[in-house]
Design a protein that fits this description.
By secondary structure, this protein is of the alpha+beta class. The chain has a single domain, classed as Fumarylacetoacetate hydrolase, domain 2 (Alpha-Beta Complex). The protein has helices at about 10-15, 90-95, 105, 150-160, and strands at about 5, 25-30, 50-55, 55-60, 75-85, 85-90, 110-115, 120, 130-135, 140-145, 170, 180, 185-190, 195-200. Strands 1, 2, 4, 5, 7, 8 and 11 form a 7-stranded mixed sheet that branches. Strands 10-9-13-14 form a 4-stranded antiparallel sheet, with no helix packed on it. Strands 6-3-12 form a 3-stranded antiparallel sheet. Strand 9 and strand 10 (about 140-145) form a beta hairpin. The longest helix is centred in the C-terminal third of the chain and has 11 residues, at about 150-160. It starts with a strand and ends with a strand. The structure holds zinc ion. The site of zinc ion (ZN) has 8 residues, from strand 1. Zinc ion binds near residues 5, 7, 54, 174 and 175.
């Protein structure tokens, strides 16, 4: 399976990092080795002094597809969750400056936290889902999918022009504002509405 991630999909997050608003979605991949295994702690890698949490809505692909029209994109997933796209921000900034790929800053072991999957049938409208991240019992990031620059179905249309989507592939749909540094002993919990879908400790 592969993990397809979207960058710069929420205006306020683009502004907090002083990035340009993209004319097309920013896309990058994480390998399956980036998945933080269930019940494991997240270890801050020794090559970074500034690892950030980015909480994101996740979509799990349930059907093989290529060149999927956004009108039919809703048939390609029936579960969603929330996760973290851990980012070594110091390393990413260096790579960005030089125009180099971001993988070392985004695709390292443990950098993809995946919450428990829930059926999209739980929601009247996937384009109006509240989600949030708690750090040590305080809400640090809050988003709603209606604030996405590209909505889930548009993202599926876009990424499937480049990559064949396969069963089990996961799309990380971008982070709202409020990203920030994690340190040892932080406890991070991800929520969709009031449902807690992951809980991890940083080491
Ligand atoms: Zn992200």
């Amino acid at each position: 399976m592969k993990i397809i991630c979207i960058g710069r999909n929420y205006t306020e997050h683009i502004e907090e990092l002083h990035n340009e608003r993209p004319s097309d979605p920013v896309v990058f991949l994480k390998p399956d080795t980036a998945i933080l295994l269930k019940k494991q702690a997240f270890f801050i890698p020794d090559f970074s002094k500034d690892v950030h949490h980015e909480v994101e809505i996740l979509v799990k692909i349930n059907k093989v597809g290529k060149h999927i029209d956004k009108k039919f994109a809703n048939k390609y997933y029936d579960e969603i969750s929330v996760g973290i796209d851990f980012t070594a921000r110091d390393l990413q900034s260096k790579l960005k400056e030089k125009g180099l790929p971001w993988e070392k800053a985004k695709a390292f072991d443990g950098a993809a936290v995946i919450g428990k999957w829930i059926s999209k049938k739980n929601f009247d409208d996937v384009n109006n889902i509240d989600f949030s991240l708690e750090k040590n019992e305080n809400i640090v990031q809050k988003g709603n999918t209606q604030l996405m620059l590209w909505k889930i179905d548009e993202l599926i249309e876009y990424v499937s022009k480049y990559f064949t989507l396969k069963i089990g592939d996961i799309i990380f749909t971008g982070t709202p504002s409020g990203v920030g540094k994690v340190i040892a002993n932080d406890k991070l919990k991800g929520f969709i509405e009031n449902k807690e879908l992951f809980s991890i400790t940083v080491k």
